[in-house]
Structure to design on (274 residues):
């Protein structure tokens, strides 16, 4: 796998050469084409100029910034490369903070940080110091012409760089309706805890798959095998109105117990229980 970025971590006077690699795979989306319904001919979109409606080949397309209504200035790759060239080569750690003080909603895209030649000792020092302190580094880095806020986190035997939203990008939660505070009976709360306990297991990554993706693939295969005829609609569960919360919780507990008994998966033991 090719690195998407090469440079160095910088904090204080310490510099560590690193390379960034994606930590996640691209989403394997099922792609659909737009077709003409009469003969299923694929539809193509053309790049046309507003001025005369003529198609424009790629070699005559440039990047521009609209600084005023219908007024543009052309921006080249060379122009962007001249914007703070030092920042494009360095992950500048601004400060260190406790991880539990940062809103989890700010984190959104992780990268593995591979240590470069000669940087092993400083890399290990930073990794272990962060782990011991329970802190993360907050940094700024330029990737693909855009400046990002990012965090440096210890992860197993290495360090992760995780891109972050700038705080002003998050919507204020006060804009959304919150549930009215209702009095919950002690019996209902007890059963809610019991339900959580009955559904608690050890983490197993194999348990979590994209079921929608698999279902769409099966539907497509069934339609191909039937000569393009629509597949029968799946049966939907009848909707129920939740009236008696206690009885619903009790049924949920019973169903969860049966499910875990069948699966044979161990439950996570409670603290203090052998």
């Amino acid at each position: 796998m090719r690195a998407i970025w090469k440079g160095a971590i910088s904090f204080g006077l310490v510099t560590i050469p690193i390379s960034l690699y994606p930590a996640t795979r691209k989403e394997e989306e099922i792609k659909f084409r737009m077709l003409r319904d009469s003969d299923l001919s694929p539809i193509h979109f053309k790049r046309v100029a507003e001025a005369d409606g003529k198609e424009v080949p790629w070699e005559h397309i440039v990047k521009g910034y609209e600084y005023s209504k219908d007024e543009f200035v052309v921006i080249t790759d060379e122009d962007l490369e001249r914007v703070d060239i030092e920042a494009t080569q360095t992950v500048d750690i601004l400060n260190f903070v406790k991880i539990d003080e940062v809103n989890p909603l700010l984190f959104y895209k992780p990268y593995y940080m591979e240590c470069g030649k000669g940087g092993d000792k400083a890399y290990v020092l930073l990794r272990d110091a962060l782990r011991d302190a329970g802190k993360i580094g907050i940094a700024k880095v330029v990737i693909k012409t855009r400046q990002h806020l990012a965090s440096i986190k210890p992860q197993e035997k290495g360090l992760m760089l995780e891109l972050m939203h700038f705080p002003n990008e998050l919507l204020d939660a006060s804009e959304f309706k919150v549930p009215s505070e209702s009095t919950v009976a002690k019996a209902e709360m007890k059963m809610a805890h019991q339900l959580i306990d009955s559904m608690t297991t050890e983490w197993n990554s194999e348990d979590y798959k994209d079921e929608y993706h698999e279902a769409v693939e099966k539907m497509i295969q069934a339609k191909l095998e039937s000569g393009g005829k629509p597949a029968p609609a799946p049966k939907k569960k009848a909707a129920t109105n939740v009236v008696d919360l206690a009885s619903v919780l009790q049924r949920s507990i019973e169903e969860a117990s049966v499910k875990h008994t069948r699966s044979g998966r161990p439950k996570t033991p409670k603290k203090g229980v052998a």
In short: The mean pLDDT is 84.
